[in-house]
């Protein structure tokens, strides 16, 4: 029976902006738990947001509620707004809804009853499929022979274990008849069977361990590679915990899950052999055994369906917890300095409690079904003994036969338990495969796309032609940052992008380096559209130093060799001297072998910036971009680095600086306002011709 289950319900006392936000957040979280991807949820967020805000225009004080319930493959969302009749779905003016609902398989439905507008729509949920599992299993191809060998030995072991009850019964008969010779023979056979079982189990474990670890190794390596290719906006929209969980934990779950599934197949072989043995001894008991197993597996099926839903909720809660802990560790200093430990711990308690609650739900439901299964086994064992007693007293069954059947019944239930436990975990396996597969091909994790054209030599000319760009939040486009921006930088020029905070300076740099892609317009390198250039032509020729550069938790020297594997000691020292950091490094006890901590936390902000500048100089990029890269430096050091940069002949240098006095000597300055370049020229020209620049410079220097 396909019963529905309520997954979320909430009432709100008005259509206030806060209540609308909370309602949409609640619905989004419920859809996420049920496997709806980020992009698809964005459509439904837009739909709910548009509906609720449209009703709020004239009925701000109206009460509303959202009810969500799930059937096996879909979630139904039920929105109820208490106000006068208003069929929001039929309003011609509401083109937003038409666009949002255009591709929906199940269009929303509206009705007005008892003074309430009721809108319902359904969302198809994700049921983990076999395709994702097939995709990740191919990572075991390099050790396929080990896997098949391990599987074969597992089957052999199960067949050996089927023989044990027969030998055990013969031992009992030999003991009861005091037949020492027969007892020794059977006991020797039993020892050989047990020794053989132990041997094949050992070989199977060795082979399978090799196959699983190889798969996990290749999966984690390839996932790391794919993660580095995910578009920046997709990385930004997810917590680090998600990637940690999927790359580290889910790949391990896959290996364990495949082993569990392998256990299912081997237990099925064992159970089939046992049932055949039953048939050769007593057809009546075979039929009775089959009836018991059908009832047993009906309990298992009910359990699996419930635990499957709990498992997905727990995995999402686990990702949130991992991300939160990662953020807490990284932000530990800021938390202390902001003196917000108490507030942060309240948030931590919410995240931890949610994960605990999901864990408790899963464990409680599991324990309930385990109790039901064990109760079933206990009472059916009693019934089984009663049936055997009847067959012995009424139908002449021998004691030895009864012992064999009773032992086989125990073995059969052991196999049934193994199958049921693995069946329960099979969904977890498919879910882990799905979540790993999403990093490879999921819409939430779209990969960067580069062209195929390669520039052999880059002069350093850059241009932007009518570029439009907007950031997205929860898949909804926000206020545009760039609005048809035009920009041209000659090769070898030193230029600066200036303007008030938020005008789009850093966004321009991210578009030039192709961390982001414009919604329209062209970004050009040496006259070529960067959309058609390969990765090396762009990233291999543009070096960027940000305001908060990331240094890796390794030695200073290793931070340089990451950028250029064959870098020499002389090149490192020269770059560090240019960046005015060599003397600081030599004052460290370990010099260039000093480990800098995660993100370079063991260094000062100025030291991190100067090492990052030196790291960029090592590659000898024809284009170097500085995004507030000297903000943590004193004026004297900043001036020394500025002179060093200006002395670099033949390089295009682009600077964004908070202090205009650091960029006034650039060949050309571009003043940006409201998403466009409104003036360009030298510092003197802008002072003369651009009132906005003159005002900004005056505010900084105190000049009129």
Can you summarize the main beta sheet?
Answer: 6 strands, mixed
Helicity range: 55-70%
| Average pLDDT, all residues | 81
- Percentage of residues in DSSP E strands: 5-15%
N- and C-termini, Cα separation: 80 Å
Low-confidence regions? none
What shape does the CA trace take?
elongated
Number of helices: 21
Per DSSP E runs of 2 or more residues, the count of β-strands stands at 17
Which radius of gyration do the C-alpha atoms yield?
A: 34 Å
Looking across the biggest beta sheet, what order are the strands in? Answer: 13-14-15-10-16-17
Structural class: alpha+beta
Key traits:
single chain, 704 residues, alpha+beta, five-stranded antiparallel β-sheet, 14% strand
Nutshell version of this structure?
With 704 residues, the protein is of the alpha+beta class. The longest helix has 54 residues, at 341-394. 59% of the residues lie in helices and 14% in strands.
Description:
By secondary structure, this protein is of the alpha+beta class. Helices cover 59% and strands 14% of the residues. The chain has helices at residues 17-33, 38-58, 95-101, 130-137, 144-176, 180-229, 232-236, 240-281, 283-330, 332-337, 341-394, 399-441, 505-512, 535-539, 556-563, 569-578, 582-587, 605-618, 635-646, 683-689, 691-701, and strands at 5-12, 64-70, 74-82, 109-113, 116-124, 462-469, 472-473, 476-477, 482-489, 494-498, 520-525, 528-529, 542-545, 623-627, 652-656, 668-673, 676-681. It has a 6-stranded mixed sheet with strand order 13-14-15-10-16-17, with helices on both faces.
């Amino acid at each position: 029976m396909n019963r529905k289950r309520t997954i979320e319900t909430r009432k709100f006392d008005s259509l206030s902006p806060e209540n609308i936000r909370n309602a949409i957040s609640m619905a989004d979280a419920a859809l996420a738990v049920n496997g709806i991807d980020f992009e698809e949820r964005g459509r439904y967020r837009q739909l709910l947001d548009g509906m609720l805000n449209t009703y709020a225009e004239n009925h701000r004080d109206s009460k509303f509620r959202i009810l969500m319930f799930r059937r096996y493959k879909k979630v139904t969302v039920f929105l109820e707004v208490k106000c006068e009749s208003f069929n929001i779905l039929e309003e011609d003016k509401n083109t937003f809804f038409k666009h949002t609902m255009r591709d929906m398989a199940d269009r929303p439905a509206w009705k007005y009853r008892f003074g309430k507008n009721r809108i319902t729509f359904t969302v198809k949920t994700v049921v983990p499929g076999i395709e994702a599992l097939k995709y990740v299993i191919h990572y075991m191809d390099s050790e396929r022979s080990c896997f098949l060998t391990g599987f074969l030995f597992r089957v052999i072991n199960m067949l050996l274990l089927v023989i044990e009850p027969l030998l055990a019964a013969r031992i009992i008969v030999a003991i009861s008849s005091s037949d020492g010779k027969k007892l020794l023979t059977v006991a020797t056979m039993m020892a050989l069977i047990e020794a053989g079982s132990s041997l094949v189990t050992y070989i199977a474990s060795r082979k399978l361990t090799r196959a699983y670890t190889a798969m996990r190794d290749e999966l984690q390596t390839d996932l790391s590679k794919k993660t580095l290719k995910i578009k920046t906006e997709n990385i930004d929209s997810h917590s680090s915990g998600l990637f940690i969980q999927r790359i580290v934990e889910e790949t391990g779950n896959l290996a364990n899950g495949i082993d569990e599934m392998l256990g299912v197949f081997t237990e099925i072989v064992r159970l089939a052999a046992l049932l055949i043995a039953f048939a050769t001894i007593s057809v009546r008991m075979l039929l009775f055994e089959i009836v018991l197993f059908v009832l047993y597996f009906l309990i298992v099926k009910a359990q699996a369906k419930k635990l499957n839903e709990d498992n997905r909720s727990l995995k999402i809660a686990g990702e949130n917890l991992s991300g939160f802990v990662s953020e807490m560790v990284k932000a530990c200093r800021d938390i202390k300095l902001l003196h917000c430990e108490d507030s942060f711990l309240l948030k931590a308690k919410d995240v931890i409690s949610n994960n605990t609650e999901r864990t408790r739900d899963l464990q409680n439901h599991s324990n309930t079904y385990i109790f039901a299964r064990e109760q079933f086994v206990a009472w059916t064992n009693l019934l089984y003994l009663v049936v055997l007693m009847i067959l012995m007293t009424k139908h002449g069954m021998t004691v030895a036969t009864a012992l064999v059947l009773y032992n086989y019944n125990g073995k059969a239930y052991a196999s049934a338990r193994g199958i049921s436990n693995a069946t329960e975990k099979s969904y977890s396996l498919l879910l882990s495969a799905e979540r790993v597969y999403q990093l490879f091909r999921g819409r939430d994790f779209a990969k960067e796309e580069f062209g195929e054209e390669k520039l052999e030599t880059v002069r350093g000319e850059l241009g932007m032609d009518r570029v439009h760009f907007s950031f997205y939040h929860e898949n909804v486009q926000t206020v545009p940052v760039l609005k048809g921006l035009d920009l041209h930088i000659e090769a070898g020029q030193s230029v600066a992008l200036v303007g008030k905070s938020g005008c789009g300076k850093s966004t321009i740099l991210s578009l030039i380096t192709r961390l982001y892609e414009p919604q329209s317009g062209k970004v050009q390198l040496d006259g070529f559209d960067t959309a058609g250039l390969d990765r090396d032509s762009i990233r291999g020729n543009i070096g960027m130093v940000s305001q908060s550069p990331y240094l890796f938790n390794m030695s200073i020297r290793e931070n340089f060799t990451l950028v250029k594997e064959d870098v020499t000691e002389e090149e490192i020292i020269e770059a560090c001297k240019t960046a005015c950091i060599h003397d600081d490094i030599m004052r460290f006890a370990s010099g260039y072998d000093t480990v800098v901590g995660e993100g370079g936390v063991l260094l000062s902000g100025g030291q991190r910036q100067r090492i990052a500048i030196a790291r960029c100089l090592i590659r000898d990029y024809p284009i170097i971009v500085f995004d507030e890269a000297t903000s943590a430096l004193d004026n004297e050091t900043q001036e020394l680095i500025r002179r060093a940069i200006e002395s670099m002949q033949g390089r295009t240098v682009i600077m964004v600086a908070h202090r205009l006095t650091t960029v006034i000597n650039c060949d050309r300055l571009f003043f940006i306002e409201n998403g466009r370049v409104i003036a360009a020229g030298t510092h003197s020209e802008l002072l003369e011709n651009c009132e906005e620049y003159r005002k900004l410079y005056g505010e900084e220097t105190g000049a009129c």
